[in-house]
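Example record

One chain of 262 residues, shown exactly as stored in the release files.
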Amino acid sequence: VSLEHQPPEHPHPALAGLVGPLTSRTGALAVRQPSQEELPLQLAAVDSAYGAPFRPGEAGQQARLDALMPMHNRRVVVEQLPDGGERILGGAVRFDTELSLPGGGRVPVGALSGVGIDPGAQHRGAFRELMREHLAECRSRGDAASVLMASITALYPRFGYGCVSQTADWQIDVPAARLRPDAPTSGSVHVEHARGAALHAALDDVWRAAGAARAGALTRSAAWWATVMSPEATWLGGGKLLVALHTVDGQPDGYVLFTVDA
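Predicted structure tokens for this chain:
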């Protein structure tokens, strides 16, 4: 499928008058890429927005998160101080990915997540400035859209976002569970204990095949899978997460990620 798109003048024309031109304002606030030394300050400001104290991860976990969220895709909003210094008020991270469309095509999108403003700095325009800069960057990169992964959806409709998908946690009472009588019996299911690139590639093949048949799926990078399957628990998964892989003639065609409550 051959696809072409022209980035719109505004991601949601009806809101153009509310949001204003998608350019950085001059004044006391600015949005920029943080330095490596500033990363703990960004994480602390964002974590405080969610009511969680910042705790640095161990070296392996931090390396995986750095690969998933490289510095060039991180942004901080800073306040210019009278003495010429700056104070980090919050930040966000962008994931470069592609979105599946009806017919099997894909277009580039900017996935936004990890947005947070320090509670002591809220209601001063920092969040608005951060969002304006992100949308402007999506336009300049030629993204077809900005896709938001958020926990507080009510904050974002004014910028043109709407809820299109949800997540659900399922708990199964194993002793009481039964297979459906019409469940397919072909293939086999294995719990995969070995972690590594081979398993990540198998999961990604299944994910991509499912996404090709369904509009609205995002591609996932190798760094994403490494974080999802990491030994340490993160907001994407990891930790005690187990994998059940379904194969037919040795080819994976489905999987389930789950945990067991002892």
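Notes: The chain has six helices and eight strands.
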